[in-house]
Amino acid sequence: MALSYMKYPSISNKLPILNRQNYIKQLKNNSLSVFNANDEFPRSGDQTFSFKQNADLFYLSGIDQEQTILLLYPDCPNPLYREVLFLRQTNDFIKVWEGYKYTKEQAQLASGINNIFWLEDFENILHSIVHYADYIYLNTNENNKYTDSIPYRDIRFIEQMRSKYPLHHYERAAPIMRNLRAIKSEIEISLTQKACSITRDAFLRVLKFVKPSVKEYEIEAEIIHEFIRQGATGHAYPPIIASGHNANILHYGDNNQQCKKGDVILFDFGAEYANYNADMSRAIPVNGKFTKRQKEVYNAVLHVMKEASKLLVDGITGKIYHEQVGELMTEQLINLKLLTLDDVKNQKSSYPAYKKYFMHGTSHHLGLDLHDFGGRYTPFANGNILTVEPGIYIPEEGLGIRLENNILITASGNIDLMADIPIETEEIEEIMNQ
User: Fold this and answer.
1) Residue 343: enclosing H or E segment and its boundaries?
2) Could you give the 3-state DSSP secondary structure of residue 278?
3) Which residues, in sequence order, are CB contacts of 161 under 8 Å at separation 6+?
4) Is residue 353 helix, strand or coil?
C-alpha cells in the first residue's frame, strides 16, 4: 500500500535489498559504511527548497525522507547493528506543521531493514561499534558534472568522522556506487519507463495546445499540469521551452517569450517519478507546419539520432561513440550546406568543424540523477540507460533543433523507452492540425 504522503505508490523493497547486497559484496573485510540524507537547503527567510533525497541513500534504502542515515557493517560483532536505519522521530508539532513521517514499521516495509532507530540514537550506536571496524566507507558527490562549492552534509560528516576517529582507514563509497548505479535493474527500468510515459502525455498535451502568440510559460504550465496530475514529483530539471532564436541558448530557461508564427519551439523537459528521471527533447512548428528548410534541418538531426542509437552497444567507449556521432553529424551539416569539405579538411582535431553547429555531447547516463552516476571512461554496458540527443543550432537562421530519446542497452538489442512519443515531422504536424 502506498504511503499516504507520497505521490507515487511504494516501491518493492526487493530493490533496496538487492542494491545493498550488491554494495556489501564490494566492501573490504570488516568495513563500516555510512550514508546520509541530503541537506534541506535554505531558500529565503524561513523557507527551504523542496527536498530531494540523496540518490545513493535512496538507492540503498528506498527511504525518501530528510534527516535519514543508513549504517551498514556486515561484519559487526553485534548482529543488531549490521544493517541499521536512523530516522527523524515525529511528534505532534511536526505532524501539524510538516505532515506525516515514516513510522518504524513503514520504514521496515520500504527498506527491508529490520533494525530501525531514531536519529538521536545514531551517535551512541556508531560509537559503540566503530572501534571494531578496520575500514570506514564514506560517501561524497563524485558526479563528473558537479563542482563542490558548498560544504554539504557528506563533507561535514567526513570532517567530523576524521576528527573523532582519526586512525581508521577511510575509503570512498562513490566508486562502488558509480559501478552499481550505472546498471539498471528491472524495477529501475520500469520506474524510468513510467517517467517517460508521463513525459509523453505532457508532450501530446502540448502538441494540441500550441498555437501562434502563445507564451512559452503557458506551455510550461501545461507540462507541469500533466506531470502532477499523473503523480510525478515534478520536473526532472528546469524545463526549456525555447521558441525561435531562444533555441540557440542551450540552457535557456526564462520561458517568457511569445511564440511567433513561422518559428520552431525547441523543448527539453522530462518528468521525475519516484526519484527516477526522464529526459526528452523535441522541436515543433508554432503554426503546426514545418517550412522546407526547418524540415531539412529537423530530419538531419533525426537521422543522426536514429543512427547514434544503433551505435550504443555493450563495450563501446564514450570516446569512440562520440567520434562516430561526430562523423554522422558532419555528413548531415555538409548536406545542409552549413559546412564545406574544405571546412572539414582544415578542422582542428581538438575542435572538429561540426562543433560550430553541434557543440554539446550526445549522450549521458540517466537514472536517479538526470546526469546519472557512471564512469566517464567506463565502456557502455547492457543495463545502461542513456540519452541520445543530437542537435543543430543555426543562430543566423533563428533555428535550433534538438531531438532526444532515452535508450536502454540490452544484449538482444537496444530498447527506446520513448519509442511511443511522436518524433517524425508528419506525426507532429498531424497531431497539431487535428
Assistant:
1) helix 341-345
2) coil
3) 34, 136, 138, 168, 170
4) helix
Q: What is the distance between the alpha carbons of residues 167 and 170, in angstroms, rounded to a whole number?
A: 9
Query: Residue 114's Cα: distance from chain center in Å?
Result: 30
User: What's the confidence (pLDDT) of residue 93?
Assistant: 67
DSSP 200: H
Q: Which helix (H) or strand (E) holds 70?
A: strand 69-72
Judge whether 352 and 326 are in contact, CB under 8 Å.
Answer: yes
Grid cell listed for 36: 546520509
pLDDT digits (tens, 9 = 90+) for 246-302: 999 999 999 999 999 999 999 999 999 999 999 999 999 999 999 999 999 999 999
- The C-alpha atoms of residue 118 and residue 293 are separated, in whole angstroms, by 63
> How far apart, in whole angstroms, are the C-alpha atoms of residue 268 and residue 129?
48
Give the rounded distance of the alpha carbon of 163 from its chain centre: 34
Per-position b or e across 97-135, b if 16+ CB within 10 A of its CB: eeeebbeeebbbbbbbbebbbeeeebeebbeebbeebeb
Which pLDDT tens digit goes with each residue over 88-105? 987 766 665 667 789 999
Would you state the cell numbers that stand for residue 363, as one nine-digit string? Answer: 549522450
